[in-house]
Structure formats: C-alpha cells, structure tokens
C-alpha cells in the first residue's frame, strides 16, 4: 500500500495531501478530547498505534512503486473511531517514511488517505452496520478489520490508476491492472489480518474489558444478569 517516495506526480501528491489534511486535523481534536476526558485510554491508544505500526511494516513487493502488507487500522477504528485512527495512522506512516524508508514524505498524503482514512472508515462502517444487525462481536471485528485492509488497497489502486492511466484504455484499464495485481496478495492478507484482530480483541476482552465497555465495544456483565450494550459513541 505504501506508495514510494517520489513515485506520484507532484500535482497528485499535493492534491492527496490537501484531501487528507482536514481528516487529520479533526482527528487531532478528537484525540485530544479523548485523552483529556479519559487519561486511562492512553495505554490502549498506544497499543492500537503499535499494532498498526508493526503490521503495516511487514511489506511484500507488489506493484512497481508500491507494496502489499497488512494495515492494522481496523482495531484502532473499532476501539476509538476513524478520526482518531487518522492521527495514529499518520504518525505510523510518518515514522515509517523517516526511519524505514517505507513510503515517503512526498507521498505521505496519498498513503494517509488510503490507509489512515479510507480504510478505517470503511472498516468501521461495516463493523457498526453488523453490530446494529445483531451479529456476534467477533464476526463484526473480523469483517471490520478485513474491509479496512481491503479498501485501503482499492483506494491505492485508484490513486495509482489516476496517476498512471493506461495509454490505450485510460483510467479504467489501469485500475483493472493495479487492482488485479493487488488482489492476488491482499485478499489472503486481509483474511489473516481479520483473524489476528479477532485474537487481539479476545485478549483485550480478558485484560481491558472495562475499557471496552466504556468505548461501547463490550457489554456490561454481572449483577442482575447481562446489561445492555454500552452506549455507542
């Protein structure tokens, strides 16, 4: 997913940066409010960011100028909602560009839009829709993480197709080629990420259940039986 440094035309790089900026600014405000209101969230926020950093650093060569890898953004989006995940994802991408030569500064806006904005929003939308329909929590977590990963690569395919349309078939022809190549590696990766996210969520249910209840992910138990699900934010 990480588009390499200098790979996008300058106009495209600037445009994606401008498109991403409002989401990141909004996310910074949401993150500030969360930390001020609930300082105890700091540890879980750090764990969500670390999960994203580690998974998205596992790159597999794919299309020229980009790569395939898990994203790790579904977990943070489910726990803290997509605006905060936009900030955590941006920090991850910035550090990877500076320290690992993974992605780049000129392509930061494009990478943020696909991995830290579009993917988390898509995954969270699937998660919320299924939760409202009464699906089991772990099913919704799996599908939320799956689609957060897969949509990231769909958006990256669009970004690359816009920048490098096919000489004969234009944007649609390029999109078909980019998406087709990505699909070979990304669908199995998305399934794997979904399963890993379920495993992490099960561990959090054991170690940080009170935090998950406050965040609206888990249900209150005990007393006179199971309580209603905590009010979703």
Automatic annotation (TrEMBL):
Q: Which UniProt keywords apply?
A: Cell membrane, Cobalamin biosynthesis, Cobalt, Cobalt transport, Ion transport, Membrane, Transmembrane, Transmembrane helix, Transport
The UniProt transmembrane annotation reads: 41-58, 79-102, 108-127, 139-161, 181-204
Enumerate the GO terms in the molecular function aspect: cobalt ion transmembrane transporter activity
InterPro entries listed in its UniProt record: CbiM (IPR018024), CbiM/NikMN (IPR002751)
In terms of superkingdom, the source organism counts as Bacteria
* Signal peptide residues on this chain, from the entry's feature table: none
Per the record, membrane topology reads: Multi-pass membrane protein
Q: Which Pfam families match?
A: CbiM (PF01891)
Q: Where in the cell is it found?
A: Cell inner membrane; Cell membrane
Taken from the UniProt entry, a GO cellular component term is: ATP-binding cassette (ABC) transporter complex
- Positions in coiled-coil regions: none
Q: What is its pathway?
A: Cofactor biosynthesis; adenosylcobalamin biosynthesis
Gene Ontology biological-process entries: cobalamin biosynthetic process
Matching entries from NCBIfam families are given as: cbiM, PRK08319.1
- Which family does the record assign? Belongs to the CbiM family.
Q: List the PANTHER family.
A: COBALT TRANSPORT PROTEIN CBIM, PTHR43627
Record note on quaternary structure:
Forms an energy-coupling factor (ECF) transporter complex composed of an ATP-binding protein (A component, CbiO), a transmembrane protein (T component, CbiQ) and 2 possible substrate-capture proteins (S components, CbiM and CbiN) of unknown stoichimetry.
Q: What does this protein do?
A: Part of the energy-coupling factor (ECF) transporter complex CbiMNOQ involved in cobalt import.
UniProt name for this protein: Cobalt transport protein CbiM
Question: What is the scientific name of the source organism?
Answer: Streptomyces lavendulae subsp. lavendulae
Tell me the gene name. Answer: cbiM
